[in-house]
Amino acid sequence: MQDYQKLVSHFEKISRFKHLASICGWDQAAVMPSGGNQARSESMAELSVHIHQLLTLPQLGDWFSNVNHSELSTTEAASFTEMKRHWQHATVLPEKLVEAKSLAGSRCEHAWRTQRENNNWQGFESNFAQVVALSQEEAQIRAQEASLTPYDAMLDLYEPGTTTRSLDVLFSDVKTWLPSLIKQVTEKQGKESFILPQGQYPQAHQKQLGLDVMKMLGFDFNHGRLDVSAHPFCGGVPSDVRITTRYDENDFIQSLMGIVHETGHARYEQGLPKALNSLPVGSARSMGIHESQSLFFEMQLGRSEAFINKLAPMTASAFKYTDSPVFGRDNFLKLYTRVTPGLIRVDADEVTYPAHVILRYEIERDLMNCKISHKDIPELWDFKMQKYLGLSTKNNYKNGCMQDIHWTDGSFGYFPSYTLGAMYAAQFMSAMKKEKDVDNLVGQQNFEPIFDWLSKNIWSKASLLSTDELVKKATGEILNAQYFKTHLENRYL
Fold first, then answer.
1. For residues 319 and 205, what is the distance between their CA atoms, to the nearest angstrom?
2. Among 372, 356, 401, 362, which Cα is nearest to 136's?
3. Which CA distances in Å does 208 have to 253, 271, 323?
4. 118 phi and psi, to 5 degrees?
5. Which candidate, 130, 306, 318, 490, has a CA 20 to 30 Å from the CA of 53?
């Protein structure tokens, strides 16, 4: 047990440095003045190298080899597996590549904030080219070590055990029914009347409403906060969760539901087992499971009729429009379940959303496998947007291939998590409804039984189980995409 305890102590040390890196990243995205970016990027690159050095110390190999598995409990065995997985992911990469990728990512992301606003693809491309080259180098190294394709090797960082083969089958099936579903729903809704919000919605009022909704959804403000960033995200650590949103004073709709989405991420983080927080086994199982929680909150719960019935009067009161028909329950439900193909992924409804994800998946898959160049992305993006959603992004880089933050730091392999998460969320809700009257609980504003189910079946499991094991224990079967399709048909048709 001595070598196992050495590993535990060492990974606890690593977690403290990762904690600092995460908060530095939040600060860079949310409150750091722009002039501080170069120095911050260099500091974060130095921190990345230090963490990498800690993860690749020569003696770790001996400690892993010397551990006697028969002496480990079930939890310790799972913890050992996760520590070893993180170690193996780190040891394949040279230190110089880690540092170069961190620097290139910070530089690209920071410049992207203004380049996107200015529709400046040419300026963005000069930084992005280096990020892609370094990511392709990383993908090749990981692929050789793991006997995988380059993209599968990157995908494994976010979705352990998931492969391109399984995703191609899954997404090919979605593409057989999604276009017709979008057509049916838009035709149906085209015959319905509704009232769009008009006027100004001050940021201060939007923020207070968001804070009230977060409180209703059980967010722990002693261990987290809400801020503003160019791209909404959830960061920090379980004991200090940082979520962000962005506001538009002409439109409160997206910001409000964005806060619900990020609160789902935050509740997962805050619900992870505290005794294991400083070890890899105590972290989220995968990004797909993480997204399942944000999408459970936003889509399964947040856009349900029962939740909208609570949200409508809260929103009317927040903006002092208590007599406005815009905030009537029926109209509010129509606003939050409106299906309209659009250019922006984070603003997309849940019916068209998978098309945005599949488009990105297909591009990043071929980019990491070196079948296309980064220069091909704008044209491919426009082609696929027209094919999947009937919209063009020709010369519109801001609302096309430059709209997301993920690729700016080389997070290739992340995008499938969004649609996997939507599928898991639908399956979790179906299983929950077999045990609890969810709509009635929401109507009573009694969310605790809902959160208790999530805590018992998802949050408390952290990475103690594989993704398939976690989903099967929670629902009785591994991922079954039919639940997602059925959910969309039931809600929208």
1. 7
2. 372
3. 14, 24, 20
4. -95, 10
5. 130
| Bridge partners for 242 per DSSP | 225, 235
CA dihedral 456, 462, 468, 473 (to 10 degrees): -20
Comparing CA positions, the residue from 447, 273, 291, 446 lying closest to residue 354 is 291
Q: Are 100 and 134 in contact (CB under 8 A)?
A: yes
Per-residue CA distances from 181 to 91, 188, 355 (Å): 46, 11, 12
380 phi, psi to nearest 5 deg:
-65, -40
Rounded to whole angstroms, the Cα distance separating 54 from 126 reads 32
**Pairing relation of β-strands 224-228 and 234-237?**
unpaired
Q: What is the pLDDT along the chain (493 residues), one digit of tens a residue?
A: 899 999 999 999 999 999 999 999 999 999 999 999 999 999 999 999 999 999 999 999 999 999 999 999 999 999 999 999 999 999 999 999 999 999 999 999 999 999 999 999 999 999 999 999 999 999 999 999 999 999 999 999 999 999 999 999 999 999 999 999 999 999 999 999 999 998 899 999 999 999 999 999 999 999 999 999 988 899 999 999 999 999 999 999 989 999 999 999 999 999 999 999 999 999 999 999 999 999 999 999 999 999 999 999 999 999 988 788 999 999 999 999 999 999 999 889 999 999 999 999 999 999 999 999 999 999 999 999 999 999 999 999 999 999 999 999 999 999 999 999 999 999 999 999 999 999 999 999 999 999 999 999 999 999 999 999 999 999 999 999 999 999 999 999 9
How far is residue 422's CA from residue 294's CA, in Å, rounded to a whole number? 9
CA distance 128 to 82: 32
The Cα 152–Cα 337 span in angstroms is 34
**How far is the C-alpha of 101 from the C-alpha of 48, rounded, in Å?**
10
What's the distance, CA 127 to chain centroid?
A: 24
Q: How far is CA 407 from the centre of its chain?
A: 13
- Our measurement of the distance from residue 257's CA atom to the centroid of its chain's CA atoms, rounded to an integer in Å, reads 14
Catalytic annotation, residues: 262
Amino acid at 463: S
pTM flag (> 0.85)? yes
* Strand ranges across the sheet with 234-237: 224-228, 240-245, 234-237
The sign one gets for the Cα dihedral 315, 316, 317, 318 is positive
Report residue 234: phi and psi, to 5°.
-120, 125
Helix, coil or strand: residue 483: helix
